């Protein structure tokens, strides 16, 4: 008896013997047949192979199995003879089967995601949805959805909307274009209680077709069904997927598409395709290029008794064929789980060219987006308590891979405001956000923070501020302060309530921001911008500032009687007095938030550390002093400390900053063994003050005399740095507790950048010959190639203008006795020499050299991109600083060991976040026996971090590492601290020093005997070396092929080694 439905596998097993025998016998071709169904006609055609799939119409055998017939060429009969052709298998026609589908509601079907049972509010449940009831639906659609839900006994359900508290607006909590969109209050039909921070939708049907929809506030811990709405036309997205692939918007990291290039993606078989057929067809129709829409791709394969293999292929129109394997290279229906090679990261920063705010996004392609008009990010300004304002984004530049994107953020307030940008990645909708960033480029009229405590014990005084706190009442409060006549001689620019706190139902604490100026001087305030450090400057008109504070103090004292208050600055801690144990009065100097202050009169502890006090705070709550935890007892300071303290407080900075630095240099050079941590602290503040003087004094920048002074000052800063590196390491370590080393490093980096942009650095008189000899410093200018070099004992500096001779980097090499070099270095670099790197030749030529210690250059496409981004007409200046060690880079927790030089690259006037990576090559260690793998790390002025979105690195077996930097900061190669490694390094260093002594003695003896024989030849060779070109050719690395180029370099490098060995 013939069966209507028999498994294809069974036929293959029953007929394999007869089919195998056909190879040596006459084949009888099966005649073409057709099967009529209600959906059309399916044709069965024999095409020279034993298996056949219906054409024109796909016949299915079961839900996830295609119907296949076998041609028995012994008798020319199809098996099975009688068939039943099933057509429809999926629950839904347009929506995925895990959703519910509503059709006949217009041109676009609606898909519903419904929770299995009532639950508390779960924000993530509807992530990926793009519709909110009732705002985004027509009356017809609302009616259809309501009827459908009522049939499932769901008459109320969660909306994807929530608020922070009763004073904040209700916000949409769906990633995408509607993220944090404020909900119109008129949509709520019932008054909400203070603890009801979520919204639900209630369906009330008045008639069979008329539904009354109510949106009501509810406690977020209530139990309701969750209902999410999707329109089928927006079910598919390709954010983060390979080209030609797409994914469901609520599973955005699982991408499907056709692999035309035979990559190693996961194969999607026929069973999975049939299961997900309704929406996979939508992906294929949307993302398969037009030129490929009639091509076939592999969907599955068949094996016949291990003798022959066949492939099932199909087109996007579901035309199926079976062909022999190996017929030709065939594309494959594939699945790829999207993964990012580096993290998705966003950075808000000041744009140095436009003086505005800009957003840098790394790997934007992995940010979730449900339509092409949405960039994946929304930026907000926090104007006041409970009020967000969207800030528009304008795309400035983006590379093809979307690994680096720059947007301008349009500012929305005239006064300082906190900004934040938010988006969601495609990886489980992880929230990606910037830190809160205060736009300090706004008006610098003095800003105050009032912490105002209003008692709620007697509501006769403050009923509207305790029991009926509403946005309307808060605005009335702001207006009553803004327009009050009792403010006397001050002019109020702005009043904002930034935060509120309830304390045990007894007090309401208001945090109020007031921007004010004296009326007589209000017109004199201008917008002073502080771009260099992104921090406000301490007001120069202290009298006006203090007077405003007094007026505000008197005003709030009388404003509401049953209240207390305190007044803070938004930016810095006010000067404050305290008394020591010996009843000595100490005054803490005015200090910015985050900075460490000292007393006005010098006060030193027994260990040589100054008494300090940290200024704490943030933008919303203002600045305040950290509480003193120990009694202050001042000891007599050392002579050095006293002099440095007095210099730091002197008025010489304005007239003669170079004299101040010269005094500092002479003092510490002659007293290196007596330096204490307090000295480094005061030195760092002196250098910082000198730089501030330079930036605010036009005569120092624009006159010949001022330029000479500044050159001398910069030279002294370099010398001070070299002197400090020679002092006791324990002193440096203790000074790090005062943040002195970080201040010194920041100031040093700033001074170098200033030198590179404002001055032509030439040899400068360093003072006494003895000091010059000790510091071992000199400068060399290569005017013909646009390079200036400063050489010293512990530090190298290169200022390069690539537009002159295409030089954009440097390389350091260990000296080789076989090759004489004329670029003699000094101090810690005495066994090395440098060469310049151009931009137009191969990187392998440099890396292959066995004596390479480090190399760094700027690719020409980076330079071109930077100029295009900023529309700068001035040349890009490349500044490269090489530190001999990490002595001043004091880690908060020393968990890493440096085994390389520290290299710092900067581009004065440009962002430190780069659109194209900079390659940096390190030899990991001079000790060849230590081959432990480490990592490239950059300095964030607190610790060394790997910052995987900012840099990546590769290594080879010859002790060299290649770092790709996307952020310009001091960078080195580090190992994790390990006692065995650390001891190994020390032991080998001791052994090396001992061996050097024997080598030197032996060399001296040999040179004494044969030296005179080669005197003439050596002299001639040295002259030849001095006259030959210094250029080493270098090649541009595209950021798209970082890994490819490194792999190629490594393979070529190893091949060369094998050839040489052979």
From TrEMBL:
Domain of life, per lineage: Eukaryota
Coiled-coil portions: none
Keyword Signal: yes
Keywords in alphabetical order: Membrane, Signal, Transmembrane, Transmembrane helix
InterPro entries, per the entry: ADGR_G7, GAIN_dom_sf
Membrane-spanning segments: 996-1015
Residues of the signal peptide: 1-21
Keyword Membrane appears in the UniProt entry: yes
Name assigned to this protein: Sushi domain-containing protein
Gene designation per UniProt: Dere\GG26177
